[in-house]
Design brief:
about 160 residues; mainly alpha
């Protein structure tokens, strides 16, 4: 059985993509709930058509959720839920935590330039610190947080 990654080793492509897929699934469900449940509640409680201003507000809130999610998670502890489950953390290149403006800018760029963000992930395969294009631009690294298990000698 392969040993788990060493603590503070740079995270690889598969780990980063799996964490992102977890976050995308979570955000898809959240955005769906935010964009549909308030309007359903309005119709059930007030028993009338949903006004345009309410629909627009709900749609705007659902659109802001991904940016707020990534920005807040990276700022507060360097990890989204996907990152936490996979065992990776986003840090500045010097090992410090991201400030809110830093996390917010990284989040905004990732969402506005998603195809480039995804394409840039392949740079992880040849960079010595496994940095994607956006990591170079925002001066960040993604490291593993899991502790390696001690390997025990099997009795012969």
């Amino acid at each position: 059985m392969p040993s788990p990654p060493q603590r503070n080793a740079y995270a690889g492509l598969v780990s980063r993509v799996v964490a992102l897929l977890i976050d995308v699934a979570l955000l898809t469900l959240t955005a769906l709930a935010i964009s549909t449940l308030p309007e359903l509640a309005w119709q059930e409680v007030l028993v009338r058509a949903v006004p345009g201003w309410f629909s627009a507000g709900v749609t705007a809130a659902a659109a802001l959720v991904p940016w707020a999610y990534f920005a807040a998670c990276w700022w507060l502890n360097g990890q989204t839920i996907g990152d936490l489950l996979i065992g990776v953390v986003v840090l500045r290149s010097d090992g410090q935590e991201l400030s809110f403006p830093h996390a917010a800018a990284r989040s905004l760029a990732g969402l506005l330039l998603a195809p480039l963000w995804l394409l840039g992930l392949f740079a992880v395969l040849w960079d010595e610190r496994r940095r994607a294009w956006h990591d170079r631009i925002f001066r960040t690294v993604v490291r593993y947080t899991v502790k390696a298990r001690a390997t025990r000698s099997q009795p012969a």
